[in-house]
Amino acid sequence: MEPAIALENVSFSYTRHKVLDDVTLTVPKGDFAMVVGPNGGGKTTLIKLILGLFTPTSGQISLFGKKPDSAWSRVGYMPQYTHVDMAFPVSVLDVVLMGRLEHSRGWRYTKADQEAAHHALSEVGLSDKAKRPFSSLSGGQRQRALIARALCGNPELLLMDEPTANVDPAAEASIFELLSELNSRMTILVVSHDLGFVSKVVKSVICVNRKVLVHPTSNLNGTLINEIYGGDLRMVRHDHRCSHEGHCINDNLRLR
Predict the structure, then answer these.
(1) Among 16, 22, 183, 209, which lies 20 to 30 A Cα-Cα from 138?
(2) SUPFAM superfamilies recorded for this chain (predicted)?
(3) Distance separating alpha carbons of residues 63 and 252, to the nearest angstrom
(4) 24 by DSSP, 3-state: which?
């Protein structure tokens, strides 16, 4: 089987500054992988190379055995930052329909486009919000609407750059529960800093800091995290109480 994503000896530089160096990486179909690493380590650059938005300085990239720009119709993408003028009168459905531009004919959305958008909204639990202004949604609902936009084209590969940025823990948990369900039919690659939480649903961790290494989630420990981020970090426990003796039972950890 062709892997969903394959990079072979890929390097990328901005002028003289090398961001990624000799990266060889394979993401098999059906994987749920998380990309982690320090700011400036090359995580977003890696995603944009996979999408074909950047051209590697050297090396080869393929999606499902094809060049990235030949596989766009099979990919859904949610960027890290989506700049929206909240005064612009756009509905939630309008935003989601943008995910059909690769499939639409001309400048008019077809009945099939409308059905795909409504189905995507149903999957993310926003069916009743379709006609509401996008600006009226909460932070977590906006993230779900943007996920629906990425799902609208019925992708086989979903790429997401910090999908839980600026949402509360409850919304974050809900989003990753949704992604875990979607993984039954598509390959998912997520950029995130939240190692402890996300490792419960992902299958592998891609560590990016100019070089790239892949680990199973079971290998995550303090030593590895130190190597990824290049310094000591504190792990904070959530959703439990310590006993009077100070012993903590629950191992649900988050990186802070």
Answers:
(1) 183
(2) P-loop containing nucleoside triphosphate hydrolases (SSF52540)
(3) 34
(4) strand
Q: What is the mean pLDDT of residues 133-146?
A: 90
Q: For the purposes of burial, counting CB atoms within 10 Å of the CB of 55, is it exposed (0-12), middle (13-18) or buried (19 or more)?
A: exposed
DSSP designation for 137: S
Residue 46, helix vs strand vs coil? helix
3-state secondary structure of 17: strand
What confidence tens digit (pLDDT) does each residue in 167-194 have?
Answer: 788 888 888 889 999 999 999 999 987 6
Instruction: Give CA torsion, residues 183, 34, 78, 139, to 10 deg.
Output: 100
Query: How far apart, in whole angstroms, are the C-alpha atoms of residue 118 and residue 120?
Result: 5
Average pLDDT, integer, range 27-43: 90
Give the domain ranges of the chain.
Answer: 5-255
| Selected residue with higher pLDDT from 5 and 211 | 5
Backbone CA torsion sign across 144, 146, 147, 151: positive
Global pTM value = 0.81
